[in-house]
Amino acid sequence: MLTLAGCGKESQQTGEKETVIPIEATRVEKGVLNDITVVTGKLKALATSDVVPSGQGGKVLAVNVEVGSQVSQGQTLITLENTSKASLAAAINQAEEGVAQAQSSLEVARINYEQAAANYERGKQLYESGAIPEAGQAGFETAYEIPYKQAKVNYEETAPAALAAARAAVALARERYQEQNNNSVIKSPISGVVTAVNVNPGELASSASQVPVVTVVNLSKVEVETTVTESLINKIKRGQEVPVTISAVSNKPFTGVIAKIALAADPTSKAYPIKVQINNSQQTLKPGMFAEVQIKNALPETLLIPRDAVVKKGDVDIVWVINKDRVKSCEVTVGASDGKKIQILKGLKEGEQVVTSGQNMLKDDTKVEIKSQVK
């Protein structure tokens, strides 16, 4: 007589209870797997400025920053001795005096012109009324017309031109003064952090030197310069977000953005250069750190199961398929994997349940109990 007890059944031949194996399971589903390609490179600052003096340089009066200083664009880094300041200021004063003299000359020219014009009109009336005979025309021109024309040219052309020249001289003197002032103050062309200071007060700072006086690096963003193959170049785009792992800082990937994609391959490597930018507001990412960029390529939709559901049996990949409360091993053909999911190209159907944990205890027709469903 057959007796049932618990979750097992008694064997007709031996009378022993059948063992039930606890397992975890999941259903075969359709989905899209990302094929991940990892490319590597080193971090670079988004912007680096090696600052040198403008003009000829000069003697250093003050160094206003040190390594590690945060600076803003336009902030003064180095102050140089300005030996020409007094003479250039005097040149401005002299040029301004020239403007005052030219303005005074223009006013005199105006008065002279108005007087000459009045005399000319009076003489013209006398001449036209016959008070001055025709034989006296030469005397009229000498006494009235020529002085009038000369005064007119002086007022309308000569004196204004002299005033314009005087004002241009002032502008030039001020420009030279400002240029010298600008040259005596070395400012930061970018915002960032100072990474090197190569001069001290009393030393000479020269624009001809091969060594910058100060180096400023903008670390608000960093970038990775790397390359991709021709098989990937048309599958990525500018603005695309990509995970970037910098293991020196964290095992958790940072979010990078593809900022530049070369239109032509490098002639030596035949690969296409790209640049990936990463926000670095905390400035924990430093130039020179090694970075791994993950580029995901969406594959065609296929059947997917957890990678752990596939086990090796010799050279064959098998999956344990659940039919009611029994299992059967099925040979499968697998495709790409992202480490968690794997493509099933042949051997399974959508909706079937497969074992994801506990396979080492199984053989065909083993009775199982699903303890949990894995997604």
From TrEMBL:
Annotated YknX-like barrel-sandwich hybrid domain residues: 51-217
GO process terms (BP): response to cadmium ion
GO MF assignments: efflux transmembrane transporter activity
Coiled coil residues, start to end: 92-119
Limits of the YknX-like C-terminal permuted SH3-like domain: 304-369
Domain of life the protein comes from: Bacteria
GO cellular component terms, semicolon-separated: efflux pump complex
Residues in CusB-like beta-barrel domain copies: 224-297
InterPro entries: Beta-barrel_RND_2 (IPR058792), BSH_YknX-like (IPR058639), RND_pump_MFP (IPR006143), YknX-like_C (IPR058637)
Pfam families found in the cross-reference section: Beta-barrel_RND_2, BSH_YknX, YknX_C
Alphabetic keyword roster: Cadmium resistance, Coiled coil, Transport, Zinc
Family membership: Belongs to the membrane fusion protein (MFP) (TC 8.A.1) family.
Its job: CzcA and CzcB together would act in zinc efflux nearly as effectively as the complete czc efflux system (CzcABC). The CzcB protein is thought to funnel zinc cations to the CzcA transport protein.
Name by which UniProt lists this protein: RND family efflux transporter, MFP subunit
Organism expressing this protein natively: Desulfoscipio gibsoniae DSM 7213
